[in-house]
Write a structure and sequence with these properties.
Blueprint (H helix, E strand, L loop, with lengths): L11 H27 L14 H13 L7 H27 L1 E2 L9 E2 L3 E2 H28 L2 H65 L3 H37 L2 H9 L4 E2 L8 H12 L5 H21 L1
Antiparallel strand pairs: 1-4, 2-3
Helix pairs in contact: 1-2, 1-4, 1-5, 2-3, 3-4, 5-6, 5-7, 5-9
Length: about 325
Amino acid sequence: MFDTVPALGLSPYEMMMLFVIWSFLGWAMEVCVHTLKMGEYSDRGFLAMPLCPIYGFGANIITVLLRDVLDDPLPLFVVSALICTAFELMVGLLLKKVFHNQWWDYSDEPFNFHGYICLKVTLEWGFVCLIGETFIIPPILKAVNLIPHPVGIIFLCIAAVLILIDTAVSFAAAKRLTLHIRQFAELNSKMYDSAEKLGSALGTAALDTSAAVHENMAAAQVQADNLSADIKESVSDAKRLIGMRYDAYMAFTADKAERRLLRAFPHMHPDKEILPESGTDLIAELREMLRGNWINPLMEGIREKLDMNINELIEKK
């Protein structure tokens, strides 16, 4: 446990302590960078704890694999940047496979690969690893070896239990978030279909009634009755769907873990294979919900749908 493994250059104890400490430092760096970028506090990471495990794993991988070049800045920078980029890509693809969401997106950055990785972040990984391996990790390992082993073991045991619990809770929250995204997408689709039906009924019936007025009043009355029935049915459907949407909204906003994940990953969006076109807009709408505005974005979309359908019918006539 405390003896250095020759093939790794570190002891299992040192690797576990490095994982926890560097996960915290990575989380702190992410929070500072994104808070400055967003202009407000921005929690980061998949876990609720102040840890970003991807940094802990990365620190161990780089320290072990590149232990022979840690004193040579150029190979350390280049190879660590490539390793971290490959690791980030693997984690991004894995998260998308499991949760059907892309948790970060570099699509706006030049030289990106499907939004998972990009040249800018690759260079940042290289600088972080160079600075970390040169100035931060050596003092951390020295400090770790100064801690009495019983104290270190107790710390690691507590950290392991908390991380496992947090991982399970966060995993379940991510699954619920995926289900809620799909639920909102289905409700949106049904409400837009209802709006389309209402718009079609209004446009068609109004035009038919106008034509019938010129022929006889009896036919006009029949058209008016049909219009009234269609409107009542469409309004009833809309009321039912709005009620369902409100229930879904209440379930979503009551889940603190889901809200935290949505805030922690501001560029997250659903898999386009699951929600081809509306996924990004839907996530933006969920963020509006977190601000207390749960219906306006949807109503604006429905209003646009109504106007579009009526205008199309008038043009066809």
